[in-house]
Design a protein that fits this description.
alpha+beta; about 170 residues; 5-stranded mixed β-sheet
Length: about 170
């Protein structure tokens, strides 16, 4: 069933057992959410999806998706879930040139936010992905907003360090 493939792709991304991505992600698959992710995530196919998993797992430990509902309509699948984890590493966002735009230093806090992931399928594999997420809820739970002066300073320091590391 196509909903099972989509849910499996999410479980693989969370678990880090990325060798299985080729079985569920089409070679031409695109992640529409990759525009704010590292350049390696902006490509196509399992390697780009694996890069997204590495990016998420670099910032968040104990990453998981609790599936609430899924529905299929032809080649379109929607999965409603709660994503949870713990913020253990800098969470980086990137600009259109692929350079670090923001760096949220680790807080050690946990979060749980609802999301809806949308998938388009082809040949029994994920061809396209996009999502609706509660990013503000996550930022609030992790202590990113409202930012304290000390956190703003830590953000600037983390951004500077991340930019140096990518050069």
């Amino acid at each position: 069933m196509s909903t099972d493939v989509c849910i499996r792709s999410m479980a693989i991304m969370a678990s880090g057992d990325l060798g299985e991505l080729a079985s569920v992600v089409h070679p031409e698959a695109t992640n529409r959410e990759a525009k704010d992710e590292p350049p390696a995530c902006r490509g196509k196919g399992p390697a780009a999806f694996a890069a997204t998993a590495h990016w998420l797992r670099a910032g968040f430990a104990d990453l998981s998706f609790e599936i609430h509902d899924s529905v299929a309509d032809g080649d379109l699948i929607a999965v409603h879930c709660t994503m949870s984890g713990r913020h253990v590493g800098p969470f980086l966002s990137y600009d259109e040139r692929g350079e670090v735009a923001q760096a949220m230093p680790p807080t050690g806090r946990t979060f749980a936010i609802t999301q809806t992931h949308w998938f388009r399928m082809k040949d029994g594999q994920v061809l396209e992905h996009w999502a609706n997420r509660d990013d503000f809820g996550m930022a609030t739970q992790l202590g990113w907003v409202p930012p304290t002066p000390a956190f703003l300073w830590r953000m600037a320091r983390a951004k500077r360090k991340a930019r140096r590391a990518t050069r």
